[in-house]
């Protein structure tokens, strides 16, 4: 990114005149519709294999699949889970990766109900993640039992903090004085980066929580509005805020769990604070021995999940990408940093 260009155009106008150092150059930005790039012949490295890239905004998963089938686009992210088997059958290229993705909820530590750890543990046991991943997501994601996602050094595939146990969830609620349950509000987006099919997933969780007596009203927002609310934090009466992340470094836990990153200084949306976790995050940041650093992050994860139950992880997306079979040379990386100068389209 060119500092000179930023100073020349200002923050708002820079979106329509960016200058970078990559193999493509900016052509146009049509807000809400498309961004167009073309091959930059003056690039210092190997030339891109395609003349032009057009990024289309298609919020609805079904619309993305339809655009792929009609040839309007050549590849899509996050296809509708219901369509994946049919796409494979019809010879589209379906790729997946062991992505460091996690789809989860911040639980509101300032809310009259969720400030009680017994309520937070009840929520952990009330959601049938395995059935969601199998029936709703059709195997395009795996259940998440931890706040440390796959493809990160601290991920422990054998760790499972909670199992689905609605009867034990009801007992926790009874112990917390809510034998008849309670009402609350959960926030999610209608689409967005890494968000999969957020409304359908939130509605599944809403039904599961209703079975143990927690009556959730869902409030949904477009992605841009939703992000603005993230920096405001959850208000009392609002039990949870849903987010997703995908980062191969465990530093992302620092971003969401450190007490000094509460709004408006960060994205610790649920106002979580634990001095022990802050201290361990400091230690992990300075630890050069990888095995010791892994042990520290796993200790942090146990505190987040078992002692505080402060976050509700739901699933790890398998990062599906579907391509027209004529697209060759595409690599699906663990994180969505696509090398779009290497693919080409066969005639």
Name the CATH superfamily assignment of the largest domain.
Answer: Dipeptide-binding Protein, Domain 3
User: Per CATH, what is the topology of the largest domain?
Assistant: Dipeptide-binding Protein, domain 3
Can you tell me the residue ranges where pLDDT is under 50 for at least 5 consecutive residues? none
| Dominant shape | globular
Continuous helix count: 11
Strand segment tally:
14
The CATH class of the largest domain is Alpha Beta
What's the story with the biggest beta sheet? 6 strands, mixed
| Cα-to-Cα separation, first versus last residue | 34 Å
Computed over alpha carbons, the radius of gyration is 22 Å
Total domains, how many? 2
Percent range for helical residues?
25-40%
User: For the largest beta sheet, what order do the strands appear in spatially?
Assistant: 7-11-6-10-8-9
**Reported CATH architecture of the largest domain:** Roll
* SS strand fraction: 15-25%
The residue-averaged pLDDT reads: 95
Order of helices and strands: HEEEHEHEEHHEHEHEHEHHHEEEE
Q: What is the structural class?
A: alpha+beta
Helices and strands in order, then pairings?
Elements: H1 3-14, E1 24-30, E2 34-39, E3 52-56, H2 61-70, E4 75-77, H3 84-89, E5 93-95, E6 101-107, H4 117-126, H5 129-136, E7 141-143, H6 166-175, E8 182-189, H7 198-211, E9 214-221, H8 223-230, E10 238-246, H9 251-257, H10 275-286, H11 290-307, E11 311-317, E12 321-323, E13 327-328, E14 344-345
Parallel strand pairs: 8-9, 8-10
Antiparallel strand pairs: 1-2, 2-3, 4-12, 5-12, 6-10, 6-11, 7-11, 13-14
């Amino acid at each position: 990114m060119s500092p000179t260009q930023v100073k020349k155009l200002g923050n708002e106008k820079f979106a329509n005149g960016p200058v970078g150092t990559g193999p493509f150059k900016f052509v146009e930005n049509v807000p809400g519709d498309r961004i167009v790039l073309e091959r930059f012949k003056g690039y210092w490295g190997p030339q891109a294999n395609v003349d032009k890239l057009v990024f289309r905004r298609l919020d609805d998963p079904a619309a993305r699949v339809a655009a792929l089938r009609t040839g309007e686009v050549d590849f899509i992210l996050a296809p509708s889970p219901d369509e994946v088997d049919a796409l494979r059958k019809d010879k589209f290229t379906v790729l997946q990766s062991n992505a460091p993705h996690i789809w989860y909820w911040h639980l509101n530590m300032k809310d009259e109900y969720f400030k009680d750890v017994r309520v937070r543990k009840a929520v952990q046991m009330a959601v049938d993640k395995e059935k969601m991943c199998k029936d709703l997501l059709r195997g395009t994601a795996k259940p998440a039992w931890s706040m440390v996602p796959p493809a990160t050094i601290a991920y422990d595939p054998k760790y499972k903090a909670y199992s689905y146990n609605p009867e034990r969830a009801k007992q926790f609620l009874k112990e917390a004085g809510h034998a008849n349950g309670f009402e609350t509000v959960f926030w999610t987006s209608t689409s967005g980066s890494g968000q999969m099919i957020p409304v359908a997933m939130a509605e599944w969780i809403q039904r599961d929580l209703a079975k143990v007596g927690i009556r959730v009203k869902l409030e949904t927002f477009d992605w841009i509005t939703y992000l603005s609310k993230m920096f405001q934090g959850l208000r009392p009466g609002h039990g949870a805020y849903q987010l997703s992340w995908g980062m191969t470094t465990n530093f992302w836990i620092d971003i969401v769990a450190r007490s000094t990153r509460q709004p408006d200084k960060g994205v610790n949306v649920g106002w979580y604070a634990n001095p022990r976790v802050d201290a361990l995050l400091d230690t992990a940041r300075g630890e050069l021995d990888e095995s010791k650093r892994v042990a520290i992050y796993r200790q942090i994860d146990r505190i987040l999940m078992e002692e505080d139950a402060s976050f509700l992880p739901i699933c790890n997306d398998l990062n599906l990408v579907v391509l027209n079979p004529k697209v060759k040379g595409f690599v699906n990386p663990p994180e969505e940093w696509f090398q779009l100068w290497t693919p080409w389209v066969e005639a």
